[in-house]
């Protein structure tokens, strides 16, 4: 049971008048360190709500109605999970940064939040920025988000995730807002970091190209439920469910050479 993070029977619902509208309907997933699990499915099927629900960071009016998260078999509260056990990188990094704070401020804040601000925070930050591929890391520290490109910001978000030293990473559509060349570089970086740092990654995406490139296993979601889980090879070669087949076929019609 060591080195695992399990989302168990997660239910998430939104209040609509007097009724609950179920958005996530009994999702169970297990992440293992050093492995990348892709969570895929059509837009609106509940991927992001699963990720946010597991971390207890749902939007107003949306709540977890059932389920728990276990780290190495022990139940863990969302506030203990966030930052310490799970780091997060999101789509649209620009909106994830406080516009009036510098990258140095964000790094200090991240380290403070996980109780690691002591000692030489600056050098640790510079090292994380360099590992994340931010060239001339020193010059990045005083920058605000508006002074950086989308690719730089995504690298900065990855650097902050590394600073927290969490063993698991939730990456929710990490390359969606980036141009194709930057996307490819960020995907390479994520792959490299997951392997080198032995991170367990939950990769949320609707892009089967990203799945083919990075994921070891795939969980397919439809209408708030996991309908199929298999290795990436099996998902591409022998999809069992219609929704899975549609995702694979849509991808193959665009990029026949990939799988
Ligand atoms: N703030 C909210 N309040 C109520 N329902 C919401 C809210 N945000 C999203 N939803 C609904 O929750 C469902 C799941 O949304 P979610 O964002 O998890 O989908 P997703 O699979 O991540 O989609 P996408 O690939 O488009 O990001 C959708 O039906 C969506 O309309």
UniProtKB/TrEMBL annotation:
InterPro entries: AAA+_ATPase (IPR003593), ABC_Ni/Peptide_Import (IPR050388), ABC_transporter-like_ATP-bd (IPR003439), ABC_transporter-like_CS (IPR017871), P-loop_NTPase (IPR027417). Keywords: ATP-binding, Cell membrane, Membrane, Nucleotide-binding, Transport. The keyword DNA-binding does not apply. SUPFAM superfamilies: P-loop containing nucleoside triphosphate hydrolases. Residues 5-248 form the ABC transporter domain. It is a peripheral membrane protein. SMART domains: AAA. Belongs to the ABC transporter superfamily. This is Nickel transport system ATP-binding protein. It comes from Kaistia defluvii. The lineage of its organism: Bacteria, Pseudomonadati, Pseudomonadota, Alphaproteobacteria, Hyphomicrobiales.
